[in-house]
Automatic annotation (TrEMBL):
The active site is at residues 187, 267. InterPro entries: B-gal_1-like (IPR026283), BetaGal1-like_ABD1 (IPR048912), BetaGal_gal-bd (IPR048913), Galactose-bd-like_sf (IPR008979), GH (IPR017853), Gly_Hdrlase_35_cat (IPR031330), Glyco_hydro_35_CS (IPR019801), Glycoside_Hdrlase_35 (IPR001944). Residues 1-21 form the signal peptide. Belongs to the glycosyl hydrolase 35 family. Residues 40-355 form the Glycoside hydrolase 35 catalytic domain. It comes from Dreissena polymorpha (Zebra mussel). It comes from the Eukaryota. One of its GO terms (molecular function) is beta-galactosidase activity. GO terms for biological process: carbohydrate metabolic process. Keywords: Glycoprotein, Glycosidase, Hydrolase, Signal. This is Beta-galactosidase. SUPFAM superfamilies: (Trans)glycosidases (SSF51445), Galactose-binding domain-like (SSF49785). Its EC number is 3.2.1.23.
Length: 665
């Protein structure tokens, strides 16, 4: 088995060398751990890295150069990045290393600025990323146990990592590239499985594919309990911790596992993550700077998580448990803002870093921002009239998104009532948020919102024979941390009951998102006969005219909750009524010189219902990700209608039936 894996690694490696036209460096390059001197050694000389995290999946690829340039100008000599498996293999067996997924180009850009690379190859990455970087198609296997030797997990893991390592082997330092270390798994000591066979499998596969002389490491929290299940012999154990004024005490934990070798903090937190409905997280610059100085004074190696946070475009945000989805912004209060701007924290930390690693590189300027002003948004259609949907699937009981082979976004469920009945409609199987509409004679007679893990997941209904219920279920992002990752199915994951009687005979159709999260041309209209009403989940559209595209922010404060598309690109979720994020970052590469189509799927309540004068969005030149967070809002949905502008409808339809691309910046 090991020989077969090694042979596969070598074969793919040589094929990739021929494709890329790369060959090993004629000059011997080495990167090793010098245990005698408690340091790393690069080409026989002591080496200490001062690194920052940046996720290539969260930064438009056109901006990789800009962000890496700024990181080098801060005095960093290394970067750290995750490999999200799910963006590279969104469909089983179909692997993509192009465009936004072109990790080799990202690594080459880092090398251009003399930045070494600390690679966190997964397969699990956490990172507040959808399913912790694992592809959702894994969930098609019954009773899946991720991050273990479960055959339904480990077989695709082995195939993926063999292919990934072959792609990246030419980028190892010894082969002339920038990669100096490779992480095995990610904070495995925090996971309940504690499967050493799994860790050994990952270690051995990395050795076979990358060579025994590649420095492998693990990262875990700074306690003996975390290190117990997260470490292995022959894999260097590192720890992570945030602001502290006594870092020597934190490093004592690492010394319990690694008595000799370099001190390493693989995640020193410059900020923290956000959740919808919670205040924006910040850590005072002065505290981060003081702690950083103390760590560097010890001679330790450090990676700052994050140095550039970026954006969860599309549906790529993760969630924590109890269920808390992460916003579109992943700013993280990092030294470089979500848009890559120079901040006070950047300049302060730069002054600390350059004490230990001087640089003559000037700090590049922040990118220009443009306030384009207001764009009038016009009601175009309800979701049910205009949706691009896969062929409807009939079933006795509701199917999950995974059973429908549709992993992101939304799915619509439809049930026709066979007799008059009233009582509680139990939707406790909703994952994650449902928009419920009862339809009678083409009119909406009931609307409600049901959210997972809340105290009341029932809706009181009074229906006649022939009435039907539409349940639009939104996948708000899969859990990326902890044992609940094994229960990440979306849609309706259990039966629906009315008066404790299970409802049977369901029709369901998922949106036609392809693996790149583009909307497909519908093969079946699945049009629902409902009177058009902007109170239903509905599309709104407007046109922005631009002479010269620049980065900007779209203010969504008048709207409630939904999804934003610009020129077909899925820019992410908005939810200003939950907060703290109110404005979405729009990189200039999403805009065209000339006309730009702004399309919103408003799921709950548009401002147009109250006043046409408020039916707009506004492009601003400043972010707003730290708004005051109100209490949870579940606003009633009314049934007013709004006329449809035929010319705008035609325009929208022509765009929707073309490709909707997440990353074609």
């Amino acid at each position: 088995m090991a020989i077969l894996r090694a042979g596969s690694c070598l074969l793919i490696f040589y094929l990739i060398l021929n494709v890329h036209g790369k060959s090993g460096s004629s000059e011997k390059r080495t990167f090793v751990i010098d245990y005698d001197n408690d340091t790393f050694s690069m080409d026989g000389k002591p080496f200490r890295y001062i690194s920052g995290s940046i996720h290539y999946s969260r930064v438009p690829y056109q901006y990789w150069d800009d962000r890496l340039h700024k990181m080098a100008a801060a005095g960093l000599n290394a970067i750290q990045t995750y490999i999200p498996w799910n963006i590279h293999e969104p469909e089983e067996g179909k692997i993509d290393f192009s465009g936004q997924q072109d990790v080799v180009t990202f690594l080459e850009t880092a090398q251009k600025y003399n930045l070494s690379v600390i690679l966190r190859s997964g397969p699990y990455i956490c990172g507040e990323w959808e399913f912790g970087g694992l592809p959702a198609w894994l969930l098609k296997s019954d009773n899946l146990k991720v991050r273990t030797m479960d055959p339904n997990y480990i077989k695709p893991v082995g195939r993926w990592l063999t292919r990934l390592y072959a792609e990246l082997k030419p980028m190892l330092y010894k082969n002339g590239g920038p990669i100096i270390t490779v992480q095995i798994e990610n904070e495995y000591g925090s996971y309940e499985a504690c499967d050493y066979d799994y860790l050994r499998f990952l270690r051995d596969l990395a050795r076979e594919c990358l060579g025994n002389d590649t420095v492998l490491f693990t990262t875990d929290g700074d306690s003996d309990g975390f290190l117990k299940c997260g470490t292995l012999p022959d894999v260097y154990a590192t720890i992570d911790f945030g602001v502290t004024y006594t870092p020597e005490k934190n490093f004592e934990i690492q010394r319990h596992k690694e008595p000799k070798g370099p001190l390493v903090n693989s995640e020193f937190y410059t900020g923290w993550l956000d959740h919808w409905g919670e205040n924006h997280s910040t850590i005072a610059t002065s505290e981060v700077a003081k702690s950083l100085d103390l760590i560097l004074a010890l001679g330790a190696n450090i990676n700052m998580y994050m140095f550039e946070g970026g954006t969860n475009f599309g549906f790529w945000n993760g969630a924590n448990y109890p269920y808390q989805p992460v916003p579109t912004s992943y700013d993280y209060d990092a030294p470089l803002s979500e848009a890559g701007d120079i901040t006070e924290k950047y300049m302060t930390l730069r002054s600390v870093i350059t004490k230990y690693n001087p640089t003559a590189m000037a700090v590049p300027p922040s990118t220009p921002k443009k306030a384009y002003g207001k764009v009038i948004m016009t009601f175009a259609s309800t979701l049910y009239d205009m949706a691009n949907l896969k062929d409807p699937v009939m079933s006795t009981y509701p199917l999950t998104m995974e059973q429908l082979d549709s992993y992101y976004g939304f799915v619509i469920y439809k049930h026709i009532f066979k007799s008059q009945v009233s009582g509680p409609l139990d939707l406790s199987g909703v994952r994650d948020r449902a928009y419920v509409n009862v339809i009678r004679d083409k009119k909406v007679v009931l609307s409600a919102v049901v959210e997972r893990d809340t105290s009341n997941m029932t809706v009181s209904v009074d229906v006649d024979a022939g009435d039907f219920v539409l349940v639009l279920v939104e996948n708000q992002g899969r859990i990326n941390y902890g044992g609940e990752m094994n229960y990440n199915h979306k849609g309706l994951i259990s039966n629906v009951t009315l008066n404790n009687i299970t409802l049977t005979d369901w029709e369901q159709s998922a949106f036609g998102w392809d693996p790149s999260q583009r909307m497909l041309i519908p093969s079946n209209s699945f049009l629902v006969p409902v009177a058009k009403a902007p109170s239903l989940p509905s599309f709104y559209a407007g046109v922005l005219d631009v002479e010269e595209p620049q980065d900007t922010y779209l203010d969504m404060s008048l709207w409630t909750k939904g999804q934003l598309f610009i020129n077909g690109m899925n820019m992410g979720r908005y939810w200003p009524h939950r907060g703290p994020q109110v404005r979405l970052y729009i990189p200039k590469y999403a805009l065209n010189a000339g006309s730009n189509l702004i399309l919103m799927l408003e799921l709950e309540q548009a401002p147009c219902h109250h006043s046409n004068s408020k039916c707009y969005v506004e492009f601003m030149d400043q972010p707003l990700i730290n708004a005051t967070v109100p209490q949870s809002i579940h606003r009633g949905i009314s049934q007013d209608t709004k006329p449809l502008w035929r010319w705008l409808f035609d325009l929208i339809m022509s765009i929707i039936f073309s490709e909707w691309n997440l990353f074609s910046f």
